[in-house]
Amino acid sequence: MRREGGTSSCCRPRRCRSPARWGRRSTRSPCSERDPIRISRERGGSVVTAVQHVAVVGAGITGLATAIALARGGVEVDIIEASEELTTVGSGISLQANALQAFAHLGVWDQVRREGYPFDGLVLRLPGPGADVISRREEPTGASDMPSAMGIPRAALARVLFDRAIALGARGRFGMRAAGVEQRAGAASVRVGEELIGTYDLVIGADGLHSAVRESIGIEAGPEPTGMGIWRAFVGRPSEVTTTELYYGGPAYIAGYTPTSESSMYAFLVFDTEKRFQTPPDEAARIMAERSLAYSGPWEAIRADLAGGAAVNYTWFTSHLLDAPWHVDRAVVIGDAAHSCPPTIAQGAAQSLEDAVSLTDLLLSAERLDESMWEEFYRRRVGRARAVVDASMQLAEWQRDGEDHSHEMPELIAGLGRRLAESA
């Protein structure tokens, strides 16, 4: 729901600081390596695009992918990030085939592949002694050079994307917490504290679940807890683990792990939500080790790493999907700011990357920001995002209701797979 009359955030013009004084720290490549081929139209020897100067709020996966695509297309991009340096929350991340295809589109697949652990298929095990394997599925994508999935440490992925964005000419502005967007006369500025930062053709809010951009443009809907929480640990990879492995049954809704490199993986346990956000590291590791005792096999090595001080992160699952439009005038939200879902299908990052690719393709091929461009963006994105959110929530509900849905789950997952196999 939008605030009444909230189609614009116009305000009295305020003076902006000189670009030379922006932020506490700026990062830019001294010599940009912009790609020679631009997606944009060219007329009369000059590049004509819907935008020339863009602020991307948030240096997460969504924001960095957006910055890469725009900078490669010749757009001036400022990445505005609250943290003092490039940081990530969590341990590792699972990425499905459509996410890997987005990396290929952005020109970073080779670097991402080197930093992560690509694989095909999925292993299902039983809880209890022996951790018997009950299913081993191979899921090739059909492309000989593209795996069906991969795991990668979040920090490594962020570094690959950030380095590429900077090499293409984007500027990193760290230590700047965006409080909102103010718009006037066909332009937008980012508010940081009491200051207005820059004048942009478009501000893209890729600032996550608790998006300041979303709130400032009058969109009141946002993420809601699903009732499930996840414990994650970054641990060593036993040699026998070469793909994602999941355990259904036992005390957790889901237990499992995904390899993220030759030497690392992340392990996870899903239970009902608890107020554990401020749990001290030693206690968090102890809790996760104790709750994993029903699971054997590689979990023995995981517990040893937990006892040795492996880092543990705890968070809740959320779900939401904004109705279109996701923009107001010269500001738009994408990624987790626009939609989220429990990672029961591991599609959260992939859907955010699809947002970034679809939006930037349109911005670079259009001559102006008009309703036809936005309508095409929502045509491409809202239905796919809704299919993922709905399927992820359905699986989460089936896991919690205690009933047998073993016959329904494959049909749901297969149906979503067919939908995602269609061009985004």
What does the model show?
With 424 residues, the protein is an alpha+beta fold. The protein folds into 2 domains: 19-88 and 156-223 and 319-421, FAD/NAD(P)-binding domain (3-Layer(bba) Sandwich); 118-150 and 225-318, D-Amino Acid Oxidase, Chain A, domain 2 (2-Layer Sandwich), CATH 3.30.9. It contains 10 helices and 23 strands. The strands form 5 sheets. Strands 9-8-17-18-19-16-20-23 form an 8-stranded mixed sheet. Strands 1-11-5-4-15-22-21 form a 7-stranded mixed sheet.
In short:
Mean pLDDT is 87; it is low at 1-25 and 29-45.
List the helices and strands and how they pair.
Layout: E1 25-27, E2 41-43, E3 46-48, E4 53-57, H1 61-72, E5 76-80, E6 92-96, H2 97-106, H3 109-115, E7 117-119, E8 122-125, E9 133-137, E10 149-153, H4 154-167, E11 171-174, E12 178-184, E13 187-192, E14 195-200, E15 202-205, H5 212-216, E16 224-236, E17 245-247, E18 254-259, E19 264-272, H6 281-291, H7 299-307, E20 312-321, E21 327-328, E22 331-333, E23 339-340, H8 348-365, H9 371-400, H10 408-421
Q: Which strand order does the major sheet show? A: 9-8-17-18-19-16-20-23
Mean pLDDT: 87
- The domain tally reads 2
Strand-residue proportion: 25-35%
User: What structural class is derived from the secondary structure elements?
Assistant: alpha+beta
CATH superfamily of the largest domain: FAD/NAD(P)-binding domain
CATH classification, class level of the largest domain: Alpha Beta
- In the predicted model, the low-confidence regions spanning at least 5 consecutive residues are 1-25, 29-45
Helix % is 25-40%
* Intertermini distance: 27 Å
Largest sheet entry: 8 strands, mixed
Q: Kindly identify the CATH topology of the largest domain.
A: FAD/NAD(P)-binding domain
Report the total helices.
10
- Rough shape? globular
The CATH architecture of the largest domain = 3-Layer(bba) Sandwich
Overall radius of gyration: 22 Å
Number of E strands: 23
